[in-house]
Amino acid sequence: MSRPSVRRAGFTLVELLVVIAVIAILATITFGLFKAANIGRNKSKSKGEIQAISMAAQSFRKAYGEFPCCATGTDDRFRRDLLDQLLGRRLLRFATPGAPPSLLAFDDVSLPGANRQIRSFLSTGDVMTNDDSQIGANDWRGGNAACREFVDAWGNPYDYRYRVLTAGKFADWKSPNFLFVSASANYIAAPVEGDILALGEYWDPASAGGTTMLRSGIVPTSYFDENGGNAGPFRADNLVNWAN
């Protein structure tokens, strides 16, 4: 008596390929949704931080008569001086009427003794920095670059522009407000300090009229041009403290 043949269970090659294709499609969709959600979360967080910085800068101006200023005008000093002033480590002092103020350490010997104390306009933790472990420490003394700038939810530095204290530059700023920007997910560092960013830049490019925004604070119409080219690149992803 012959035994019935037993059919071995399993998948054909075609069935395996179909399953793999379905898994790949689902993985792609899931990754896309996760990436979109992550970008949305980062944008919301960075917008909140921009609002916190803006409110702190307004409080600073009420106290000292100006928004946080920059000592030299270079990118790293703008970011570092903003942080130091909003955390109360440095302050502005108008010693001569009509002349630009001086940027002093909070405990500078030229200040009255009663005023030699840190007056912070921003609580630590409201905005991330490039080294949160150094917040509140004396890392700003002696040229140490630690904790020198605020960073957005992507870990990239916010960029800031306002008046420069260097002789002859203080009066160049024409806008009544400061400029504070996150390049969002498009951030690409400039190859040379002070250069306009090559892609996803914060400000108007040199090809669209030079450093108009950098020197005057006036936002040109071309900044909002979404057509690209020399008229002004697409900047929909930039997060800013002015309306766009």
Helices, strands, pairings?
Blueprint: H1 13-64, H2 75-86, E1 90-93, E2 102-105, E3 159-161, E4 179-182, H3 212-216, E5 239-240
Antiparallel strand pairs: 1-2, 3-4, 4-5
Describe the protein.
The chain is mainly alpha-helical and 244 residues long. The protein has a domain at 14-180. The chain has three helices and five strands; from the N terminus they run ααββββαβ. It has helices at 13-64, 75-86, 212-216, and strands at 90-93, 102-105, 159-161, 179-182, 239-240. The strands form two sheets. Strands 3-4-5 form a three-stranded antiparallel sheet. A two-stranded antiparallel ribbon has the order 1-2. The longest helix is centred in the first third of the chain and has 52 residues, at 13-64. The chain is elongated. The termini are far apart. Mean pLDDT is 79; it is low at 228-234.
Question: Any idea what the shape is?
Answer: elongated
Radius of gyration: 26 Å
Secondary-structure element pattern, one letter each: HHEEEEHE
* Most strands sheet: 3 strands, antiparallel
Terminus-to-terminus distance: 87 Å
Helicity, as a percent range: 25-40%
What are the low-pLDDT stretches, counting only 5+ consecutive residues below 50?
228-234
Q: Which structural class matches the secondary elements?
A: mainly alpha
Features:
two-stranded antiparallel sheet, 5 strands, 7% strand, 3-stranded antiparallel β-sheet, elongated, mainly alpha, 3 helices, 244 residues
